């Protein structure tokens, strides 16, 4: 009886030790990541990692990886693949986290492409939340992006008219010189 109790306690202790060792060895900490893996990574705590750049007095650029206050939804221990970074039109040298890139149609086109949108859940989650912070629903933005792309192509194909060149809009203008008036 004592032997079974001892073996049971030993098994529980071994299991607990194995879980602790696995958790400490597999944990991702943003501050320990290199420049090449920092951007778009998520720590084991679910915090997004951010690449920051400082310039020393000597002019040397120093890159550091830090945890941000932005948390990932349901994603932990994630280092984004180069395939996804490229498919989504991003760069490993991206500094900080910003929604500004959502204003660029070229970026939005890549983000909404099947290669990114259907295959890179971490990046889609990040930009879904950034878009929501700006009051935009990412799936609707992608629909609009796709519709405008189709509409633009159909207008090009279906148009018999050619847009006038820049000379059409230019008309000679005569400027006159008048004395500057004081605002007072």
How would you characterize the overall build of this protein?
It is a single chain. By secondary structure, the protein is mainly alpha-helical. It has helices at residues 2-26, 35-38, 82-87, 105-111, 114-117, 121-133, 138-158, 166-169; strands at residues 47-55, 61-71. It has a two-stranded antiparallel ribbon with strand order 1-2. The N and C termini lie far apart (103 Å).
Strands, count: 2
Secondary-structure-based class equals mainly alpha
The order of strands across the largest sheet is 1-2
- State the helicity in percent bands: 40-55%
Cα-atom radius of gyration: 27 Å
Distance between the termini: 103 Å
Mean pLDDT, rounded to whole units? 76
Largest sheet: 2 strands, antiparallel
Q: Which band does the percent of strand residues land in?
A: 5-15%
The total of helices stands at 8
**Which stretches are poorly predicted, pLDDT < 50 over at least 5 residues?**
10-24, 151-159, 165-170, 180-184
The succession of helices and strands, N to C, reads HHEEHHHHHH
What spatial form do the alpha-carbon principal axes imply? globular
């Amino acid at each position: 009886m004592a032997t079974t109790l001892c073996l049971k306690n030993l098994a529980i202790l071994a299991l607990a030790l194995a879980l602790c060792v696995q958790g400490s060895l597999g944990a991702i900490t943003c501050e320990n990541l290199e420049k090449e893996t920092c951007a778009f990574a998520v720590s084991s705590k679910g915090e997004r990692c951010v690449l920051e750049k400082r310039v020393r007095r000597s002019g040397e650029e120093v890159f550091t990886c830090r945890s941000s206050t932005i948390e990932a939804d349901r994603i932990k221990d994630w280092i984004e693949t180069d395939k996804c970074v490229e498919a989504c039109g991003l760069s490993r040298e991206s500094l900080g986290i910003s929604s500004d890139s959502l204003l660029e149609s070229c970026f939005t086109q890549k983000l909404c492409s099947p290669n990114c949108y259907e295959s890179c859940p971490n990046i889609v989650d990040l930009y879904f939340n950034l878009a929501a912070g700006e009051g935009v629903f990412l799936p609707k933005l992608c629909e609009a992006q796709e519709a405008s792309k189709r509409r633009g192509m159909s207008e090009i194909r279906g148009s018999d008219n050619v847009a006038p060149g820049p000379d059409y809009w230019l008309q000679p203008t005569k400027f006159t010189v008048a004395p500057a008036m004081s605002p007072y």
